[in-house]
Amino acid sequence: MQTTDEKYISRCIQLGKNGLGNTAPNPMVGSVIVYNNKIIGEGYTSPYGGNHAEVNAINSVASKELLKESTLYVTLEPCSHHGKTPPCADLIVKNKIPRVVIGITDPHKKVAGKGIERLKGSGCKVTIGVLEKECREHHKRFLTFQKKKRPYIILKWAETSDGYIAPKQDKRKNKPEPYWITNKHSRQLVHKWRSEEQSILVGTTTVLEDNPKLNIRSWTGKNPIRVVLDRNLKINGKYHVLDKSTKTIFITSKEKTSSDNLIYETINFIDKVPQQICDILSKHQFTSILIEGGAKTIQAFIESDLWDEARVFVGDVSFDSGIKAPSVVKKQVKSIAILEDTLNIYSND
């Protein structure tokens, strides 16, 4: 059975999920304010540049005088520095909230315990580490970015029942388009995932053969920023990734001037390519990325051990021959049936 503190931190996590896909590079924090064992205020992080969760929770309290006798719960240590918004720790102190319960400390170098020190220094009673495991899972994107200096990396692909990610070239039509392996429900789920992550990445071959839009069509939400590997700038204007509808970063070996929504970044494609890609992604402050293909690109990240989750659909079709699917040798944590499809999820703990 959960303790009282655990119950309210659980609610904070639930609230924080409302910010998924909108708060990055900020973490999706949730906060509640409790008076006399009753929630009197709730909040979660606004889209990037807006209020943090604690501010929204405090602002939602109708009777501000109750704050002096309340407890504030929050999934992540309140910030103590001026960024796009003032420090949350200062606001908590200003409102004389006597107790704060925190899921986990913030590893960001500008916070890292300073928020807790500010609260304790004002006489506030602080409890740390409530539902710590659950809060770390909730904040996995932010924590990976802060600790590993790279985004949280999700690999996604669909493979046939006989282990192929794509058919032979002669099976494709003249017009570049996806060759579907999974059903429409699985494909809709992928669009939901796209709305949840900050960016999406594919290689040159995927663009040339499938001409993907890499946007959200069967779901609602913000399109992820597109990242395209194009070593020799083979992709021309007939492909969707050059339509300027969404910010797109091309990673190439050639020098090219950036313009409008098209950004060009150069790397050396000879050695440690996945790490160089991660460095570019970190430069742009991407806390998460969904890598959708192709097989060589995904396998390169697997072999470099630069990934956190693999989400693998197995469709009820077979190709007999074609491009072999990537191979991941890690613990499978979940298997889900989506009608005739199977979704296997692997974790790289």
From TrEMBL:
- Write out the catalysed reaction: 5-amino-6-(5-phospho-D-ribitylamino)uracil + NADP(+) = 5-amino-6-(5-phospho-D-ribosylamino)uracil + NADPH + H(+); 2,5-diamino-6-hydroxy-4-(5-phosphoribosylamino)-pyrimidine + H2O + H(+) = 5-amino-6-(5-phospho-D-ribosylamino)uracil + NH4(+)
Q: In which pathway does it act?
A: Cofactor biosynthesis; riboflavin biosynthesis; 5-amino-6-(D-ribitylamino)uracil from GTP: step 2/4; Cofactor biosynthesis; riboflavin biosynthesis; 5-amino-6-(D-ribitylamino)uracil from GTP: step 3/4
Q: Which superkingdom?
A: Bacteria
Keywords from the UniProt entry? Hydrolase, Metal-binding, Multifunctional enzyme, NADP, Oxidoreductase, Riboflavin biosynthesis, Zinc
What is the E.C. number?
3.5.4.26, 1.1.1.193
Q: Where does Zn(2+) bind?
A: 52, 79, 88
GO MF annotation list: 5-amino-6-(5-phosphoribosylamino)uracil reductase activity; diaminohydroxyphosphoribosylaminopyrimidine deaminase activity; zinc ion binding
Q: Where does NADP(+) bind?
A: 158, 180, 210, 294-300
For biological process, the GO terms are: riboflavin biosynthetic process
Q: Tell me if Oxidoreductase is a UniProt keyword of this record.
A: yes
Record-given protein name: Riboflavin biosynthesis protein RibD
- What organism does the record attribute this protein to? Saonia flava
